[in-house]
């Protein structure tokens, strides 16, 4: 009796669970997704979708509120329409992990970016092809390569401060740092700067790229007087200049006057990368390497001005390093290793003002996330800044506190993503770090600064953060007495 009812119960349980078992066993991946719902939300207006609304918000620096409102209304997975793509917008560290590591997603650039920079950049290739092109860049960007350039960067930074800061009463920081980072990159990665020719090409390219970067997230309408048409014209001139450099490098390589280790272009030529791909990748690197780092240094100075405790610690750290150097002696790798607090302050700046708003992905196939299906061909977007301003990850997120980064292991995985993550993580992060530390060392030990009257430190995004008035500061040289360096 007892046993019978037991059997009955088991049979009944079995029958009840049959539909579940059936689904587990037989519902294949193929049609499983079609039963899942699309993320909640809306696609907005026909054609323009949410593009104009988000771009306006970026310029007004309210994009954060814009995204926050969507997340509040629809939850951590929602849909919208951006740059004519149906887009899934994901929020939170586990969403970031999905974006950076899911094999169902690949990188994509905005249409405006592709038309200006090219469609065969490192971000447009996948699998082995991606690994091959990335390796050519990493050859010049990995730590031991960057270490060899500390002294070269040091010279470039000092030259820049001598000609753009010394003797002046005020400086617009962002334009100055854009010129500096462009020059450093041109010299170190592309060998433009050793000769008089190099310096000329560099100046020409720098002007074109200042224009070009403003169109990265523009509406790609090539009509007279649009922002995009101006940027596209600049990119065409930039491409011609880059193509000229490639020709000159090829001639040198063929005549045995150069070696693949000299610069990225010669290296790519020696690996047989087609010319158009070299041009696209050089264009890409020139965009990727200069504005981002310029924004980091600029906003670091901004935060140090507003946070005197942090400034005092940075100053002390840097002066201690300066005291160990002989007059005119360049910084070394060992010196940079002693800049721990300064780098924590830079990380805190990357947290509060991440240069990259969001990097776009595209679904290669239907893929599920958070209980919803993201159909093949959709764009996927996350938010760096929303992650970095999440009180669950960084308590009291509005407070500038470099101490958060004194123990980086305390930060949850994918909770701090200024450089992205996964196989596509920024390969230029060591380069950016060294460049930032060298620059901050010389600025902090040579000048005192404060925001100029009328400059409030506010900023807009396009999508790189750009401070109003370029962050205009009043500067004053620091008198080192007899120990002048
Ligand atoms: C503070 C400075 C910088 C920031 C915040 C930054 C940020 C980023 C981010 C977020 C990505 C995308 C990762 C992804 O899609 O998951 C990226 C990619 C990339 N960055 Fe940077 N970057 C910086 C400096 C640099 C520099 C100095 C270089 C080169 C010298 C560089 C070269 C690249 C390249 C080549 C990629 C594409 C990698 C790939 O698709 O495999 N970046 N960067
Ligand atoms: C990041 O979000 C905060 C809080 O919403 C906002 O005040 C800030 O302007 C945003 N910063 C950037 C760089 O988007």
Automatic annotation (TrEMBL):
Molecular function GO labels: heme binding; iron ion binding; monooxygenase activity; oxidoreductase activity, acting on paired donors, with incorporation or reduction of molecular oxygen
Cofactor(s) annotated in UniProt: heme
TM regions (residue ranges): 6-26
PROSITE patterns linked: CYTOCHROME_P450
Cited CDD domains: CYP90-like
Keywords tagged on the record: Heme, Iron, Membrane, Metal-binding, Monooxygenase, Oxidoreductase, Transmembrane, Transmembrane helix
Gene3D superfamilies for the chain: Cytochrome P450 (1.10.630.10)
Coiled coil segments of this chain: none
A single BP term in Gene Ontology: sterol metabolic process
Similarity comment text for this entry: Belongs to the cytochrome P450 family.
The protein, known as: Cytochrome P450
Organism annotation: Miscanthus lutarioriparius
Taxonomic placement: Eukaryota, Viridiplantae, Streptophyta, Embryophyta, Tracheophyta
